[in-house]
TrEMBL record:
Residue span, NADP-dependent oxidoreductase domain: 5-307
Keywords: Cell projection, Cilium, Flagellum
UniProt keyword annotation of Nucleotidyltransferase present: no
Protein name listed in UniProt: Flagellar radial spoke protein 5 isoform X2
InterPro entries, A to Z: NAD(P)_OxRdtase_dom_sf (IPR036812), NADP_OxRdtase_dom (IPR023210)
One Pfam family here: Aldo_ket_red
The keyword Thylakoid is annotated on this UniProt entry: no
Origin superkingdom: Eukaryota
Amino acid sequence: MCCVVNGMWQISGRWGRIDREDAIDDMLRYADSGLSTFDLADIYGPAEDLYGIFINRVRKERPPEYLEKVRGLTKWVPPPVKMTSDYVKEAINVSRKRMDVASLDMLQFHWWDYSNPGYLDALKHLTDLKEEGKIKTVALTNFDTERLQIILENGIPIVSNQVQHSIVDMRPQQKMAELCILSGVKLITYGTVMGGLLSEKFLDTNLSIPFAGPPLNTPSLQKYKRMVDAWGGWSQFQVLLQTLKKVADKHGVTIPTVAVRYILDQPAVAGSMVGVRLGLSEHINDSKKVFSLVLDEEDVNSIKEVSERGRDLLKVIGDCGDEYRRA
């Protein structure tokens, strides 16, 4: 797996129309540049279907060893109904068919309602499918520390948990990372560049003046603006962006590159998501610079100091994933 993961939430339909051919061409460009891991889900519109077309082009147009580097990490987000073996198997077969693979590289499981313990049944059936070779690795998305502990105590072999994690949202380091280090579970992070808020585009902007700054015109920008508000507000966020800009300039990179590197360097983190707007824009060079960027002690301390000025989001929102389960 590549530690910088191409996130495909942005092709789910709420960001506008995606041209299929342009999107596949872009997926090949990302993979050719070494960014060969894609994160998708059964609920991300045509994401799994696009991956299936992409992987077929890889099989036809690239050498066999190339295929070994490409990874498709998908998610299954079922309604909290009774999790029978047949129900789980059918859902996984749909993803396998859409992605045109015999075995899913990774299945990341999400569960909406902890008061319904069916998630344990689902994970046991997923583990059976892993034994049958239909899934290579079973993982989680947006589970909290308490439930991760229960799952591990039930002997379910989880490899990772995908959680929201950024310089603004350091919740995973407060409880989750400790359990992950003890158990060997890794964190894959999303929201790491906050939908683009952690970038030069929003530096020195004042959102209190209508139409003065860049529009918050995507679901991800709107979502992460709410995180900024919960953390400490826009003026404090500007101080963070100014700090990141100094670090970025020192290393000849951009703010998003620094933001991703900082989170990749946190305990238990194995991969960080950067959303891709396939066929519309690309950030291959910025993402590739993450691999070679080394933040020194001065950089880390300056970022940490501003990050810790904000509110404790564990107290404001709750543990990882709680933002999806609280009314």
